[in-house]
Task: inverse folding
């Protein structure tokens, strides 16, 4: 039997969690809701979550000189077609995929050998190097953005994919996370591999990598989410070339192209951009949480 | 098959000596056990032989060939680890295959996908498969070949680890406490199995353990190590009967040997606790000495006399076939352990005062530094070796 105070305590805990959940979810709710509604409904704040979905006329379509019958459609269809029509959303998404995947792959290629050396090899100055890794974790990206930009500009790499990818390829967080994980891999396993005749590089890729899959997945989610959503850095290095824009940068197109109220298509585009991340997170949720608890991070 | 020679090997970690000047000759085809308490340097010795650790000084030779600067994989040794160290992401078959793939296939033949295009590869793979099949049959692990290590029990993993060592047909096997993660009955079973495997393979086994029972049951020779020193090297019988150091005497044998403080007079007569022990030693050792008695070398007698000691029965350990009586002696905190037959031991009650006397000629005498001293029968004497 639960006592009265216990019940109260539970109630308090859950209301707190609920409040937190509402704060986090409300923007998503609005985003989704706006992406369904017609401009007038958004303005008047009517129509509930899904809107009434009454047939509406597309003003731009008429301005473009089309007959009125062709410009009638439901708001949801209008919003989502406009999202894809007004900006090359597919192109942005492909850019986003290319950039985030490249970053992650190169991060892994660099972080795994580093983490292996820092956790399993004994060499002079190892602790100093590891101390520097931890120190680098403390440096905010924004602090070094300007020097990084200048360096890339001097090399002539601004407005290229390289500018979007190269600065992120060495992830101290990745090195740190993988090092912590490798510390838990028994030394015997590595010795066994050495006795079997593997070299150090084979050990990293054939023994350590397969055992580190859970940690890699967790790191992958951190990395992909961070760089898919990154607005700051692409905004700095992609100045003219619209073909290089990543999804968050592409969202700006709606703002600047706007004549009048275009929240509907903008929210539709946002939904499309956020969706892949939500799906990945839901699929890898358990691994993700394992990865965080495993290292005691965050 | 190969003999292994360690020539004044030393090892220290940042000034801390772990192995002091170790000389050891391991014969071809021998089952040699390195035994000692944890931290005595036995595992380090094994790792030095394997090449996983570099010695600070001295030489390691395999088949009279110096291997100081040769990589572990090229020393043609196989190692079995306490934690088994199987590759968790590979099936048993692939675990067994790994050492052979690395030894027999070239870099390009091992290359993913492209490797299939290299001529002659499939022939090599077939012979590797045959090798694995043979080992799996010997160890009776064929039904497990498709499983991953996580799906195996401790004993099965142990076999797979052995198999991975066997497939290479190495010059010698190095085993680092391979049985200590198994449960008691399986451990006893695996002891017998390892012994018969050794007889079948006729290869050198170097076996590291802290369990003196494993050392006594399986080995051709035992090397007892303590604090980085090799104290005694000999057959199990020798080490048990004639320990040359009081530390060896206390370590080998279960229950532990009983040690009494005693003195030796100018004539070489040994006395302890006021009674004359039936042992004569060289009068050169006159002074304080220690006398050791194994639990099975003590007799319970009915009547006290000038040849008996007595103690209060504080604890009985009934093993079924034997009963070990723990007696507390006056003026000593350690209990004195006596082995008794069940019919004799079970009649005694806790708290009884028992009289006992050592069996003639069974005492082991150690000088003040703990070195073994030979009992004098004729006029010859000296250190036991």
Result:
């Amino acid at each position: 039997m639960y006592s009265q105070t216990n019940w109260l305590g539970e109630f308090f805990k859950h209301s707190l969690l609920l409040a937190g959940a509402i704060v986090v979810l409300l923007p998503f709710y609005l985003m989704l809701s706006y992406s369904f509604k017609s401009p007038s409904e958004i303005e008047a704040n009517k129509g509930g979550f899904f809107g009434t979905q009454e047939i509406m006329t597309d003003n731009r379509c008429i301005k473009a000189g089309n007959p009125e019958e062709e410009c009638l459609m439901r708001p949801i269809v209008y919003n989502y077609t406009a999202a894809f029509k007004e900006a090359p959303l597919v192109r942005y998404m492909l850019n986003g995929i290319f950039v985030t995947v490249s970053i992650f792959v190169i991060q892994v290629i660099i972080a795994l050998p580093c983490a292996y050396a820092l956790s399993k090899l004994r060499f002079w100055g190892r602790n100093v190097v590891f101390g520097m890794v931890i120190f680098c974790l403390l440096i905010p990206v924004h602090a070094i953005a300007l020097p990084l930009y200048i360096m890339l500009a001097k090399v002539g790499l601004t407005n290229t994919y390289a500018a979007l990818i190269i600065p992120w390829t060495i992830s101290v967080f990745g090195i740190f996370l993988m090092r912590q994980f490798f510390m838990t891999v028994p030394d015997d396993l590595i010795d066994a591999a050495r006795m079997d005749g593997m070299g150090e590089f084979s050990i990293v890729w054939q023994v350590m990598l397969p055992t580190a899959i859970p940690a890699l997945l967790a790191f992958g989610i951190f990395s992909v989410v961070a760089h898919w959503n990154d607005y700051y850095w692409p905004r700095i290095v992609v100045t003219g070339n619209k073909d290089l824009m990543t999804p968050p940068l592409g969202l700006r197109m709606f703002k600047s192209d706007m004549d009048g109220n275009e929240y509907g298509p903008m929210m539709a585009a946002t939904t499309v951009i956020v969706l892949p991340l939500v799906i990945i997170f839901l699929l890898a949720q358990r691994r993700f949480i394992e990865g965080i608890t495993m290292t005691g991070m965050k | 098959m190969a003999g292994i020679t360690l020539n004044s090997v030393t090892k220290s970690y940042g000034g801390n000596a772990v192995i002091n000047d170790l000389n050891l000759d391991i014969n071809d085809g021998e089952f040699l056990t390195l035994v000692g308490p944890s931290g005595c340097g036995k595992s380090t010795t094994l790792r030095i032989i394997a090449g996983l650790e570099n010695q600070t000084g001295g030489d390691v030779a395999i088949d009279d060939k110096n291997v100081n600067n040769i990589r572990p994989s090229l020393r043609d040794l196989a190692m079995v680890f306490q934690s088994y160290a199987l590759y968790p992401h590979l099936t048993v078959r692939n675990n067994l295959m790994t050492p052979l793939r690395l030894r027999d296939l070239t870099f390009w033949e091992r290359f993913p996908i492209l490797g299939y295009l290299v001529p002659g590869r499939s022939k090599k793979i077939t012979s590797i498969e045959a090798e694995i099949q043979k080992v799996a049959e010997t160890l009776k692990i064929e039904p497990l070949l498709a499983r991953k290590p996580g799906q195996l029990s401790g004993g099965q993993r142990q076999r797979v680890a052995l198999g991975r060592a066997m497939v290479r047909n190495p010059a010698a096997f190095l085993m680092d406490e391979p049985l200590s993660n198994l449960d008691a009955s399986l451990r006893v079973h695996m002891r017998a199995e390892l012994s018969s495997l050794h007889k079948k393979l006729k290869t050198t086994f170097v076996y590291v353990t802290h369990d003196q029972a494993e050392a006594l049951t399986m080995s051709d020779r035992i090397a007892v190590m303590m604090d980085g020193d090799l104290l005694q090297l000999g057959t199990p019988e020798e080490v048990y009967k004639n320990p040359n150091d009081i530390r060896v005497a206390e370590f080998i044998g279960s229950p532990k040997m009983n040690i009494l403080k005693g003195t030796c007079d100018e004539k070489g007569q040994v006395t302890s606790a006021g009674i004359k022990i039936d042992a004569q030693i060289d009068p050169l050792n006159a002074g304080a000495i220690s006398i050791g008695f194994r639990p099975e070398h003590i007799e319970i007698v009915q009547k006290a006399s000038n040849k008996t000691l007595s103690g209060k029965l504080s604890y009985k350990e009934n093993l079924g076939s034997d009963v070990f009586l723990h007696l507390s002696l006056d003026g000593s905190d350690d209990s004195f352990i006596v082995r008794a037959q069940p019919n004799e031991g079970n009649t005694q009650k806790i708290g009884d005062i028992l009289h006992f006397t050592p069996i003639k000629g069974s005492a082991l005498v150690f000088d003040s530094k703990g070195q073994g001293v030979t009992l004098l029968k004729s006029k010859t004497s000296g250190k036991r070796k």
Remarks:
- The domain at 87-295 of chain A is CATH 1.10.3720.10 (MetI-like fold).
- Chain A has two domains: 4-82, 87-295.
- The interface with chain B takes residues 186, 188-189, 191-198, 207, 210-211, 213 of chain A (CB under 8 Å).
- The radius of gyration of chain A is 25 Å.
